[in-house]
Design brief:
The structure holds 2 protein chains of 2 kinds. Chain A folds into 5 domains: 52 residues; 217 residues, Rossmann fold (3-Layer(aba) Sandwich); 149 residues, Dimethylsulfoxide Reductase, domain 2 (3-Layer(aba) Sandwich), CATH 3.40.228; 129 residues, Barwin-like endoglucanases (Beta Barrel); 251 residues, Alpha-Beta Plaits. Helices cover 26% and strands 20% of the residues of chain A. Chain A has 26 helices and 39 strands. In chain A, strand 30 and strand 31 form a beta hairpin. In chain A, helix 8 packs across helix 9. Chain A is globular, with a radius of gyration of 28 Å. By secondary structure, chain B is mainly alpha-helical. Chain B has 2 domains: 27 residues; 123 residues, no CATH class. Chain B is elongated, with a radius of gyration of 25 Å. Chain B starts with 8 loop residues before the first helix and ends with a helix. At the A-B interface, strand 1 and helix 24 of A face helix 5, helix 6, strand 1, helix 7 and helix 11 of B.
C-alpha cells in the first residue's frame, strides 16, 4: 500500500483577491434590457462579416515552376554555433521553422529561439535603413564611407582598425575576417558574447593546455553529475543533449533502472528540475563540493578538500558505480577550476571514449570573450583605435558598464555597426547598417560538434538595404559582385571551393544545400591528456554574511538580442512562470529573513551601481544568493523590449557570473511582475503522477455515461505526453503559436490571465519550498470523448467529428464562453480583441490556419490542418488510410525529447497506441471520466543514487 | 363626450397591420432571394481580365487539355495557373505582337506576375483540394461547367457551402470513373458503390474539419 503522495503546488504567492461583489454596481432593469438588446444586435451583426472573395487576384507567375510549399535547409546560430533548420516557404514567404533531422544539433527538434526566429524575420521594428549619426542615408553612402575607410587604413597598414563580432564559428566569416587581418596587418579582431562560457575555455586550458571541446554522448550515460545546471539548459547543444538524455532514460525505464542525473546548483534550472537528486548549493559552495567529489573519486588534488560535503561520498559512489558510463559536466558560468575538476573526474572515471569525446573547439579562434572585449576597451581608451566595425553584436548594452563602451565608441572617428535592429550600439556608432536576417542571407555555420551547414536564403529579402556580415567585410576588402551569382553566395562558394575538389564542387554544393549539412565536417576526436598541475587549488572563500549576485541567461530572451520578439516575451518562463519581464530571484528562506513578499521592490547595489527591481522568491533557490536574469529592460527596443529590468547594469567585468558583496535594500514600493503561476489552474486528484521503475498505475475503468459512444470506423486521433521525458523547455508552446497563428496579447492582458497559448506547460512543485521536486506538464486540448464543452454550446460551435477531434467552428461561435467555463482542463481561449486584424501587428501567419475574429473561442485542434494536408496527400496518392507518423503535430515535431506522441489510437501498432498501453498511462482528471484523448505517461522516480546493487 | 376614434379607425388599423405584415414578409422574401441570387454569388458574371482570354478558343476550338495550363490539378490543392512563359511558348509564334498579349511580355520583362481576377476563390476558412477531388472522380465539368464553350469564363455554380454539402452528403451522382474526370460532356453511368470507388469512410466528408480549419 502506497501512502498518499504529497500534493503538487504551483506558487508561493496567493491569487490576488477578486473584486468584491459589492464593488460592482448592480444594474437596473433598463440597463439589463439595453445590454441584452445590444448583444442580440451584435450577434446578428456577427453574421455580416464575410469577406468578398469574388474577383480577388489569381496570379500567373512569369516563369518557373509554381510550388505551393518549398522547404529550405539552413541554420540558426546561438553563441555562434549552428542548429540546422528547415524553413517552410509558402508562395515566397517563410512561414514556419522546423528542425532538420539530418543535423546533429537539431535531430528534427527545435528550441524556442529557432521557432521564434520567423517572427523576428517579419518584425516591423527591424532596422530598414543605413544611418549616419542616426539619420537615414542611402546604402551607397555607407559603401562610400567604407571605401574611404579602406583607403585611409591601407595607407597606414590598417593600424587603428578593430573588428568586434560575436563568437565566430562560421568558416566563411572567419575566412573573410582572416583576409581583412591579412590585408590590414595593423588591425585586430575581438569577439564578445555576453553569455560566452569563458570558464569552460579557461577550464579546458587548465586541464589540457588547449581549448579542447568536450562532446558528451549522454545516450550512453548511466550517471550524470551536472555542476551548476547545464546539461538540459538552453544552448547550442541543448537539443542534442536532451535527446540523448531522453534516449538513455527510455532505455533505463525498459531495463528497470534509470540513469541518474545528479545536479548541484544555486539557481533552479531545467536540468535541476529533471534531476534524480538535486543539491542546492550557494554558488561559492559548488567548487568545494566538486573538490570533495573529486577527492572521493581519487583525483589527485593540489590541496585536500577543506571540509567534505556530506553528500559528496554518495554522489561519488553513484559515479563510481557507473564507471566509464558516468560523466561530469559543468554548467555555463562556472569558474575554470570547476570545469577543470569536471575534466579530471571524467578522466578518473575513464569516461572519455564512452560518454564523451574530446575534439578541437568548433570556434574559428577560441578566446575568452571577456578578456577580448576588455582589450578592445583598453585600446580605445588609449586612443589606438580609429576605425571600429561591430558586426552583429550589441556590446553597448551587454558589456559590463565599467568598461565605459558607449563613451569610448562615440569618441571614435569612424565606427560602424551592423545589426538586425538599430540597437544601443547602433545608436552609439557613427554608421549603422541593417543586417540581413539569417533566413535572408547566404552564409555557413558550424554546429557544436563541428558539422558545417551552408546557410541559404529561405525567403526573398524583406529589407532592401540590408547586407550580410560577410558582404560588409567584402566591401571593406574592396570586393564587388562579379558575375551572375550574388556577392553573399559567391563568398560562401569561394570558401567551399577551397575545401572541395573542383570536379565535384557543384554536386557537393547542391547536396549540402539539400541536406542542410556538409558531409564529413564533424570534428574528429583529438587526444587530450590531463596536464600536470592542472589544479589551481581552492578558490578563496568570499566574505561571509554578504549576498551573492548570480547573472544568468533569461530562459526566453537568452542574452537580450531577442528582446524584440513578442512570442518570447510572452512565453511564461519554464520555472518562474513570469512573462514580459524579470525579477530578482531569491530563496524563500532568504526572502523571509529579509521580510520580502513576492513583488516587493528592492534596490540592489553592487560595487556602487544600483538597480531597482521586484523580488521574487523562487522555490529551490540557494539561500543568500540573488539570481538576475539578463536580457530584459532594454530602453531602445520597440514596444516589446520595455518590460523588465536590465541586469547588465550591475554586471562587473571581473566577475560576470557570480559577484559577491551584493547589498539589498527594500524600497517599500511594490512592482508585481507578471506571474502566470495561477492562470488556468486545474483542480483535481493526482494531477502529476509518479511511479517507481516498472510500477504500473491501476487501470482506470470508465463509468456509465448518459451519452452514447461514438463510432470511429476510420482513424481516431490521440496523443500521449511522457511526463518523464518532458524537460519543460517551452519549445512546443512557441511551435504551436507559430503553427496556429496564435496572437500575442501583451503584458496587461497576460496579467489578467488572458494569454492565448493553446498549449501551456504547467510547472508544479512537490514538497518543501527549500528544494522541491519539480514536474512539468504540457496541457493542450484533451479532445475528450465525453467532452463537457460540446454539450453546453448553445450554437453547436464545438462538435465531435468522425475521427474523435473536438472541433471548434469559429463562424458559428457567438462567444458565450460557456464551453470555457465548463472545460475542466482550462484549455479554451477567448478572443477579447480583434487580434486577427489588429493595426500594425506583425504580418506573419501560417496560411493553412485561419485567423480568428474577435469574440470567438479558440483552442488546440490537434493541428487539424496537418491532418487535413496528410489526408489530402494520401487521397491524391490513392491511399485511404494514413500511415503512422504521417501526421505530426507542431508540438510533437518541436519536442527535443520526443515526449509528445501523436497518432491513430485505432491502429494498435501506432506509437501512440503502444504508449497508451503502457502501465504509466493515465488521464488527467481521470476521476471526471470525460475520457480525454490526450493522456499522460507518469514520471518515473527511483532512489536518487540509482539501484542499491 | 365625443368619440375619440372615428368609425373607420378600426378598419384603418387592421389594414395598416396587414400591410405592415405583408411588407415585412415581402422584405424578407426579397432579402432571401437576393442573398441567394446568382448576382450575390457571382454566378454567370464575367470579370474584366488583364488579357481577354477565351477558354472557348483554347480548350474548345483548339482542343487543349485542361492540364496543359492547370498543371498541378492532379497533385496539389490549387489547380495551378499557367506561367507567362508557358503562354509565350505558343504565342511567340502565334499572335506574337498582339497588343492584348502585352501583359505576358511585360510579366517576363519585369519579372512580375499577371494578376487575373479569380471567379472561384473560396473564403479563407474554406479549403478545397483539387487533386483529392480529381483522384476521387469528380469531373472538372461537375463544378466548373462547360468551360470549353465559354468565350468569357464565368462561374456556373454558386460554390456556396450548401452547394458543396449537397454533393458531400450524397457524392455518388456527381462521380465518374477516374479516367473520365477530364472528359467533356461525359454522360456515362456513375460507378456504383461509393466505398469501393472512393474508399471513403461513410459520413466523414460532412465533418466541419473536412473543409474548414
Amino acid at each position: 500500500m502506497r501512502e498518499d503522495p504529497p500534493r503538487p503546488w504551483r506558487a508561493l504567492h496567493a491569487l490576488p483577491e477578486p473584486p468584491q461583489p459589492s464593488a460592482i454596481p448592480a444594474p437596473d432593469r433598463r440597463a439589463v434590457l439595453r445590454g441584452a438588446a445590444a448583444s442580440l444586435a451584435l450577434a446578428a451583426a456577427a453574421g455580416c462579416d464575410a469577406p468578398d472573395n469574388f474577383g480577388q487576384p489569381l496570379y500567373s507567375r512569369p516563369r518557373g515552376v509554381a510550388r505551393e510549399v518549398s522547404w529550405f535547409a539552413t541554420a540558426l546560430e546561438l553563441e555562434g554555433l549552428g542548429r540546422g533548420v528547415l524553413v517552410r516557404n509558402q508562395a515566397g514567404h517563410a512561414v514556419k521553422v522546423e528542425g532538420n533531422p539530418a543535423h546533429p544539433a537539431s535531430l528534427g527538434a527545435t528550441d524556442t529561439y529557432m521557432q521564434a526566429a520567423i517572427l523576428s524575420l517579419h518584425d516591423p521594428y527591424r532596422s530598414r535603413h543605413a544611418r549616419e549619426g542616426g539619420r537615414p542615408r542611402p546604402p551607397l553612402a555607407a559603401e562610400a564611407a567604407l571605401a574611404e575607410a579602406r583607403e585611409a587604413l591601407a595607407a597606414r597598414g590598417g593600424a587603428g582598425l578593430r573588428i568586434l563580432t560575436g563568437l565566430v564559428a562560421s568558416p566563411t566569416l572567419a575566412r573573410l575576417i582572416g583576409e581583412v587581418l591579412d590585408a590590414f596587418p595593423g588591425a585586430a579582431w575581438h569577439q564578445y558574447g555576453p553569455l560566452a562560457d569563458d570558464g569552460a575555455l579557461a577550464g579546458a586550458r587548465l586541464a589540457f593546455g588547449a581549448p579542447v571541446a568536450v562532446l558528451p554522448d549522454l545516450s550512453r550515460a548511466r550517471a550524470i553529475l551536472s555542476l551548476g545546471g547545464g546539461v538540459l539548459e538552453e544552448g547550442p547543444a541543448q537539443l542534442r543533449l536532451a535527446r540523448d538524455w531522453a534516449a538513455a532514460r527510455e532505455a533505463g525505464r525498459r531495463a528497470g533502472h534509470l540513469p541518474s542525473l545528479l545536479v548541484a546548483e544555486a539557481t533552479p534550472s531545467l536540468t535541476g528540475a529533471k534531476a534524480d537528486r538535486r543539491l542546492v548549493l550557494r554558488p561559492q559552495e559548488i567548487e568545494p563540493f566538486a573538490r570533495a567529489v573529486a577527492a572521493a573519486l581519487g583525483v589527485p588534488l593540489a590541496a585536500p578538500a577543506a571540509a567534505a560535503h556530506p553528500d559528496a561520498p554518495r554522489i561519488a559512489a553513484a559515479l563510481r558505480r557507473a564507471g566509464p558510463e558516468a560523466v561530469v559536466l559543468a554548467g555555463r558560468g562556472q569558474p575554470a577550476a570547476v570545469h577543470a575538476l569536471a575534466h579530471a573526474m571524467n578522466v578518473a572515471l575513464d569516461a572519455p571514449g564512452t560518454t564523451l569525446r574530446y575534439a578541437d573547439s568548433p570556434y574559428a579562434r577560441p578566446e575568452e570573450a571577456g578578456a577580448s572585449l576588455r582589450a578592445l576597451a583598453e585600446a580605445m581608451a588609449a586612443g589606438e583605435v580609429t576605425h571600429l566595425l561591430v558586426l552583429d553584436a550589441n556590446p553597448v548594452h551587454t558589456a559590463p558598464p565599467e568598461l565605459g563602451l558607449p563613451g569610448l565608441i562615440r569618441r571614435l572617428p569612424f565606427s560602424l555597426h551592423a545589426g538586425l535592429y538599430l540597437d544601443e550600439t547602433g545608436l552609439a556608432c557613427r554608421w549603422h547598417l541593417p543586417l540581413r536576417h539569417p533566413f535572408e542571407a547566404w552564409g555557413d555555420s558550424r554546429a557544436f560538434d563541428g558539422t558545417a551547414t551552408i546557410r541559404q536564403p529561405a525567403t526573398v529579402p524583406l529589407v532592401e538595404a540590408a547586407r550580410g556580415a560577410e558582404e560588409i567585410l567584402a566591401a571593406l576588402l574592396g570586393r564587388r559582385q562579379e558575375g551572375a551569382t550574388g556577392l553573399g553566395e559567391a563568398l560562401v562558394r569561394e570558401t567551399w571551393r577551397a575545401a572541395w575538389q573542383e570536379a565535384e564542387f557543384e554536386a557537393r554544393w547542391r547536396a549540402a544545400l539539400e541536406e542542410g549539412v556538409v558531409e564529413g565536417t564533424a570534428l574528429r576526436d583529438r587526444p587530450a591528456r590531463l596536464r600536470e598541475g592542472w589544479d589551481p587549488g581552492p578558490a578563496p572563500a568570499p566574505p561571509a554574511g554578504t549576498l551573492a549576485a548570480l547573472f544568468a541567461p533569461d530562459p526566453g530572451l537568452w542574452d537580450g538580442a531577442m528582446a524584440e520578439n513578442a512570442w518570447l516575451q510572452e512565453l511564461p518562463r519554464p520555472l518562474t512562470r513570469l512573462a514580459w519581464g524579470n525579477a530578482a530571484l531569491l530563496a524563500p528562506s532568504t526572502a523571509e529573513a529579509l521580510g520580502l513578499a513576492p513583488g516587493d521592490e528592492v534596490e540592489l547595489e553592487l560595487r556602487g551601481r544600483r538597480l531597482a527591481l521586484p523580488a521574487w522568491p523562487m522555490p529551490g533557490h540557494a539561500p543568500d544568493t540573488v539570481t538576475l536574469p539578463l536580457g530584459h529592460g532594454r530602453p531602445t527596443a520597440g514596444l516589446e523590449g520595455g518590460g523588465g529590468f536590465d541586469a547588465y547594469r550591475l554586471r562587473p567585468a571581473d566577475a560576470p557570473w557570480t559577484a559577491h558583496g551584493l547589498v539589498l535594500r527594500r524600497t517599500g514600493g511594490r512592482r508585481m511582475p507578471i506571474a502566470t503561476d495561477h492562470h488556468h489552474e486545474i483542480r483535481g486528484e493526482e494531477i502529476i503522477r509518479t511511479v517507481a521503475p516498472g510500477e504500473e498505475l491501476p487501470p482506470h475503468r470508465p463509468g456509465p455515461s448518459f451519452y452514447p459512444p461514438w463510432p470511429y470506423p476510420g482513424h481516431a486521433w490521440g496523443m500521449a505526453i511522457d511526463l518523464d521525458s518532458c524537460i519543460g523547455c517551452n519549445a512546443c508552446v512557441v511551435a504551436c503559436q507559430a503553427e496556429n497563428n496564435i496572437p500575442v496579447v501583451g503584458p496587461e492582458e497576460v496579467a489578467r490571465g488572458r494569454e492565448m497559448h493553446w498549449l501551456r506547460v504547467e510547472r508544479y512543485f512537490i514538497g518543501a519550498p527549500e528544494n522541491p521536486d519539480t514536474a512539468f506538464q504540457p496541457v493542450p486540448c484533451m479532445h475528450c470523448e465525453k467532452a463537457p464543452c460540446e454539450v453546453v454550446c448553445p450554437v453547436n460551435a464545438t462538435v465531435h467529428d468522425a475521427e474523435g477531434l473536438n472541433t471548434m467552428i469559429y463562424p458559428r461561435c457567438i462567444g458565450t464562453r460557456t464551453c470555457s467555463n465548463n472545460c475542466p482542463y482550462k484549455v479554451r481561449r477567448f478572443n477579447w480583441f480583434d487580434y486577427a486584424r489588429g493595426g500594425d501587428g506583425v504580418r506573419v501567419a501560417n496560411p493553412e490556419v485561419p485567423l480568428r475574429i474577435r469574440g470567438v473561442i479558440e483552442k488546440c485542434t490537434y493541428c487539424v490542418q496537418r491532418i487535413g494536408a496528410a489526408r489530402a496527400q494520401a487521397r491524391a496518392e490513392g491511399r485511404e488510410r494514413l500511415r503512422d507518423g504521417e501526421v505530426v503535430t507542431a508540438c510533437a515535431q518541436a519536442c527535443p525529447t520526443q515526449a509528445i506522441l501523436f497518432g491513430d489510437i485505432n491502429d494498435p501498432e501506432s506509437a501512440v497506441a503502444r504508449a497508451k498501453r503502457e502501465g504509466r498511462n493515465y488521464a488527467l482528471l481521470g476521476e471526471l471520466d470525460v475520457r480525454p484523448r490526450t493522456t499522460y505517461l507518469a514520471r518515473v522516480a527511483q532512489a536518487p543514487e540509482g539501484p542499491a546493487a | 363626450m365625443p368619440q375619440i376614434f372615428s368609425p373607420q379607425a378600426d378598419s384603418t388599423l387592421r389594414l395598416a397591420v396587414a400591410l405592415g405584415l405583408l411588407a415585412l414578409v415581402a422584405a424578407l422574401v426579397l432579402a432571401w432571394s437576393l442573398a441567394r441570387s446568382d448576382r450575390a454569388w457571382g454566378v454567370r458574371q464575367p470579370l474584366a481580365q488583364p488579357i481577354p482570354f477565351s477558354h472557348a478558343l483554347h480548350a474548345g476550338g483548339l482542343g487543349m487539355d485542361c492540364r496543359y495550363c492547370h498543371s498541378t490539378v492532379e497533385r496539389a490543392a490549387g489547380a495551378g495557373m499557367p506561367t507567362a512563359e508557358l503562354c509565350l511558348g505558343c504565342h511567340e509564334q502565334v499572335w506574337a505582337g498582339a497588343a492584348v498579349l502585352a501583359p505576358l511580355r511585360s510579366a517576363i520583362e519585369l519579372d512580375i506576375p499577371i494578376a487575373w481576377r479569380s471567379l472561384h476563390r473560396l473564403p479563407d476558412h474554406a479549403r478545397f483540394h483539387h487533386a483529392v477531388h480529381v483522384q476521387n472522380g469528380v469531373g472538372c465539368e461537375t463544378c466548373h461547367g462547360a468551360v470549353w464553350a465559354m468565350p468569357q469564363t464565368v462561374k456556373v455554380e454558386p460554390m456556396s457551402m450548401g452547394w458543396c454539402l449537397d454533393c458531400h452528403r450524397n457524392p455518388e451522382p456527381a462521380l465518374r470513373p477516374r479516367e473520365a474526370v477530364f472528359d467533356r460532356g461525359w454522360a456515362g453511368a456513375a460507378p456504383g458503390g461509393l466505398a469501393e470507388h472512393v474508399g471513403l469512410t461513410a459520413g466523414s466528408i460532412t465533418d466541419c474539419y473536412t473543409c474548414h480549419r
